[in-house]
């Protein structure tokens, strides 16, 4: 029953070095892909290099960029729209009890309605314009942004605000030095989450509300049974997503969360 | 704050219950939506395309009465449950492994990141490619998208287990089995529950998406049917039914379970939200 | 204050239901030493410690932070293995299998269990356990109104009391306390100290109490051991009669002497 003392357990060979672990993980993934590709017929599960070849072919032929661009553009607008709406709602819900109870049903319903429903609705209403995927995205995404912002506002400590008032700190200074840093982690979660959801919804909306875009191309490949092509498109887009995740989001995340030593944000899902 | 004074000025003239009673506020909220909806429809002169609330209520009622909805709802529900069960198994096990072992956490973390960011459409289409029109398609698609969320929640829960409680148990000679049951399991339960709940919601949505891509019945299938017929009323009717179902499950069932399980916490707050 | 203490029916009740009281046990620390292996090399916390404690006495172990007093307590409570030597316990009957009750600096309660269930948690191997045992323990520490409350519903002082009740509920031969009041505000700590003395005088347990607060040590114990530089460098008998008044001349004089002795290790 006596537990071991402070001494570390024996360090085993392949070990807690994060990079070796990650490499190991990456290799298993590739091995699994390879194994599946061998077992399954080629069109259902192409080999990694085949996919890369095809994907590269798409890029070279100039087909890739316009579609990626369109999807990203719609994602961008959807993200902006949902952020504006979400932040507004979240702020109201945070500062005012009445607003909270008033807007909550919208948020709750917003969380419950599936993206395809909004996409179907906006397609019928807007037809093939860019509004269809964008509005569908805004409607699906804003509740998540709203909740995170609301939690951020709630998190503001009244004690700190009182203290600032007692020192006669100006509103502007409070906003910049107290309110925004305090809400920053929540805001960050909102936007990061909002962005990720935006591209998910945009791709869904594109299957019927657009004539271009990654989602559209993916659906097209599926419908004409050109499955390898679907894989190629998916890989391209995933590379882009990973680029955004690791290139932009994670560095910002590190900066925002620097002063906290507890990553206690189950908000990040 | 100025919002409060403005509010109290207006509020001063209204009967109090209009702005303090929860149910009244809820009703006000719904009325606001209805009004805006009706105004937009009329204003844009699109009463046909943006079907008015009345039409939707009528057709929803009609659909319910006709009983046509049963076969589709059961199909969807069945697929959701399959997906959710698989998600729970994979997500919980993976979450525990990653929580207890640094090595596996680092090895698999990137897959979780990708899983969280993966567009659900991809999962739906690839599942459809492999499994065609069957119950397996939505199940697999749902699992792929949902399990990373559960995994993340569980392994954070494991990380958060208070080491001092383990030490205290040791000093009182509590058996390992009892410690796992009374400290580890109970400690992780809140996070697990939040993750499971969120995953459940995701399973619903991915299932309907997969049905839209490849199914011969189900809610997603019906929505696509009406979409292709350009019937906004049809789409909205099915959406309404779907939403109401989810709300019943969420507030009728899950919230009650949550209250029972976790009344030792002193937290209020909207649960579905907590996992967002 | 004392009004917080529930008056139990039988003022002299020592036993908890279903158990024969083992009474108080003696503690024998023999040639105890502890060395840690750290990344920078080995670190000897203390060595060659020999202490004998009579049953029923209240002993304080005093030391500055980092002196190793918590480590020593952890070894005595069998949570940690010593590098050399051993700790033995013995009831007056000669029985050496002694139950230990441990009270921590922070309450360490399971937040998802009620007070009663928190106590029940440590009674796994007790076939005679009923909720009565838990309730009687809670009565002892003045929490009769709080059987079914959760830790989040209690104040810091109340939670600490539950911790004490939990330790007492096992009818231990020795009560091991690791700076149990240092995280509380002074008024609450004062109250708890008085209540602890009251419980101790009624139940007659051996108490091994670690602290860094000289005044607390003098107020509570019969004997003060001072730990520093890897050894016990002082072992003072507390001459003051109970009940002790912190503003009396004798108290202040003894305190001065003890403080001087305490700081003597620096030279």
Q: What layout of secondary structure does this protein have?
A:
The complex is a heterotrimer of chains A (269), B (276) and C (267).
Chain A: H1 18-39, H2 48-60, H3 64-95, H4 97-112, H5 115-126, H6 131-154, H7 158-166, H8 171-209, H9 214-223, H10 227-256
Helix pairs in contact in A: 2-10, 3-4, 3-6, 3-8, 4-6, 5-6, 5-8, 6-8, 8-9, 9-10
Chain B: H1 2-11, H2 17-20, H3 22-43, H4 53-66, H5 69-100, H6 102-117, H7 120-131, H8 136-159, H9 163-171, H10 176-213, H11 219-228, H12 232-261, H13 271-274
Chain C: E1 26-38, E2 41-53, E3 58-62, H1 69-76, E4 84-90, E5 100-103, H2 115-120, H3 131-140, H4 156-169, E6 174-178, H5 186-203, E7 206-211, H6 214-220, E8 223-228, E9 231-237, H7 249-263
Helix pairs in contact in C: 3-4, 6-7
What does this structure look like?
- The complex is a heterotrimer of chains A (269), B (276) and C (267).
- With 269 residues, chain A is mainly alpha-helical.
- Helix content of chain A is 77%, strand content 0%.
- Chain A contains ten helices and no strands.
- The two termini of chain A are 37 Å apart.
- Chain B has 276 residues and is mostly helical.
- Helices cover 82% and strands 0% of the residues of chain B.
- In chain B, α4 packs across α12 (232-261) and α5 (69-100) runs antiparallel to α6 (102-117).
- Chain B starts with a helix and ends with a helix.
- With 267 residues, chain C is α/β, with parallel strands linked by helices.
- Chain C has seven helices and nine strands, in the order βββαββαααβαβαββα.
- The longest helix of chain C is centred in the last third of the chain and has 18 residues, at 186-203.
- Chain C is globular and about 50 Å long.
- Chain C starts with 25 loop residues before the first strand and ends with a helix.
- In chain C, the strands form two sheets. In chain C, strands 5-6-7-3-8-9 form a six-stranded mixed sheet, sandwiched between helices. A three-stranded antiparallel sheet of chain C has the order 2-1-4, with helices on one face.
- Chains in contact: A-B, A-C, B-C.
- Chains A and B meet through α1, α4, α5, α6 and α8 of A and α1, α3, α6, α7 and α8 of B.
């Amino acid at each position: 029953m006596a537990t071991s003392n402070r001494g570390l357990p024996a360090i085993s060979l392949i070990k807690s070095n994060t990079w070796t672990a990650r490499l190991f993980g990456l290799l298993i993934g590739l091995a699994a892909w390879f194994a599946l590709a061998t077992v399954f017929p080629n069109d259902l599960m192409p080999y990694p290099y085949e996919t890369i070849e095809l994907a590269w072919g798409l890029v070279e032929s100039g087909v890739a960029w316009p579609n990626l661009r369109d999807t990203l553009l719609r994602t961008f607008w959807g993200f902006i729209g949902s952020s504006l709406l979400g932040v507004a709602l979240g702020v109201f819900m945070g500062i005012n009890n009445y607003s909270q109870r008033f807007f909550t049903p919208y948020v709750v319903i917003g969380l419950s309605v599936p993206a395809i429903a909004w996409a179907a609705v906006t397609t019928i209403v807007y037809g093939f314009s860019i509004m269809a995927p964008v509005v569908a995205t805004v409607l699906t995404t804003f509740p998540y942004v709203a909740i995170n912002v609301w939690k951020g506002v709630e998190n503001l400590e009244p004690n700190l605000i009182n203290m600032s008032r007692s020192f006669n700190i100006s509103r502007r200074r409070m906003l910049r030095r107290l309110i925004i840093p305090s809400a920053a982690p929540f805001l960050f979660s909102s936007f990061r989450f909002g962005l990720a959801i935006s591209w998910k919804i945009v791709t869904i909306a594109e299957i019927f509300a657009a004539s271009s875009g990654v989602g559209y191309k993916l659906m097209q490949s599926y419908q004409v049974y050109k499955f390898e092509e679907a894989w190629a498109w998916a890989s391209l887009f995933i590379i882009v997503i990973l680029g955004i995740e690791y290139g932009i989001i994670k560095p910002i995340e590190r900066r925002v969360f620097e002063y906290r030593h507890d990553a206690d944000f189950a908000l990040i899902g | 704050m100025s919002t409060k004074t403005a509010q109290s000025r207006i509020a001063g003239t209204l009967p109090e219950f209009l702005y303090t009673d929860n149910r009244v506020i809820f009703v006000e909220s719904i009325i606001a939506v209805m009004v805006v909806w009706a105004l937009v429809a009329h204003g844009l002169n699109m009463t046909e395309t943006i079907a008015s609330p009345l039409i939707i209520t009528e057709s929803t009622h009609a659909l319910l009465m006709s009983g046509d909805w049963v076969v589709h709802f059961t199909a969807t529900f069945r697929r959701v449950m399959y997906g959710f069960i698989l998600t729970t198994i994979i997500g919980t096990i993976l979450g525990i492994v990653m929580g207890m072992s640094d090595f596996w956490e680092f090895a698999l973390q990137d897959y979780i990141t990708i899983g969280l960011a993966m567009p659900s459409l991809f999962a739906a289409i690839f599942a459809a490619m492999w499994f065609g029109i069957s119950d397996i398609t939505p199940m697999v698609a749902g699992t792929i998208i949902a399990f990373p969320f559960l995994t993340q929640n569980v392994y954070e829960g494991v990380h958060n287990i208070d080491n001092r409680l383990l030490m205290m148990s040791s000093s009182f000679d509590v058996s390992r089995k009892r410690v796992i049951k009374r400290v580890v399991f109970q400690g992780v339960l809140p996070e697990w529950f939040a993750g499971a709940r969120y995953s459940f919601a995701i399973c619903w949505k991915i299932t309907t998406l997969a049905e839209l891509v490849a199914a011969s019945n189900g809610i997603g299938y019906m929505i696509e049917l009406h979409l292709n017929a350009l019937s906004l009323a049809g789409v909205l009717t099915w959406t309404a039914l779907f939403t109401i179902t989810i709300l019943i499950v969420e507030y009728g069932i899950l919230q009650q379970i949550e209250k029972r399980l976790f009344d030792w916490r002193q937290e209020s707050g909207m649960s579905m939200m907590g996992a967002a | 204050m004392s009004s917080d203490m529930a008056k139990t029916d039988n003022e002299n009740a020592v036993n908890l239901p279903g158990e024969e009281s083992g009474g108080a046990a003696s503690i024998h620390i023999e040639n105890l030493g502890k060395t840690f292996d750290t990344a920078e090399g080995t670190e000897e916390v203390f060595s060659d410690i020999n202490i004998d404690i009579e049953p029923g006495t209240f002993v304080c172990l005093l030391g500055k932070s980092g002196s190793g007093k918590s480590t020593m307590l952890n070894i005595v409570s069998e949570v940690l293995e010593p590098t050399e030597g051993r700790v033995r316990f013995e009831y007056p009957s000669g029985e050496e299998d002694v139950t230990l009750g441990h009270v921590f600096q922070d309450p360490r309660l399971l937040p998802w269990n009620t007070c009663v269930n928190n106590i029940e948690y440590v009674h796994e191997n007790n076939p005679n356990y009923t909720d009565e045992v838990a309730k009687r323990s809670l009565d002892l520490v003045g929490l009769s109104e709080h059987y079914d409350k959760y830790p989040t519903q209690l104040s810091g002082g109340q939670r600490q009391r539950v911790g004490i009740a939990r330790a007492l509920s096992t009818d231990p031969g020795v009560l091991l306390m690791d700076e149990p009041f240092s995280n509380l505000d002074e008024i609450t700590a004062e109250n708890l100290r008085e209540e602890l003395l009251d419980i101790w005088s009624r139940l007659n347990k051996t108490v091994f109490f670690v602290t860094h607060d000289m005044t607390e040590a003098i107020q509570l114990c019969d004997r003060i051991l001072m730990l520093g530089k890897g050894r016990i460098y002082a072992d003072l008998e507390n001459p003051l009669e109970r009940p002790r008044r912190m503003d009396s001349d004798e108290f202040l004089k003894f305190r001065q002497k003890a403080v001087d002795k305490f700081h003597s290790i620096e030279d």
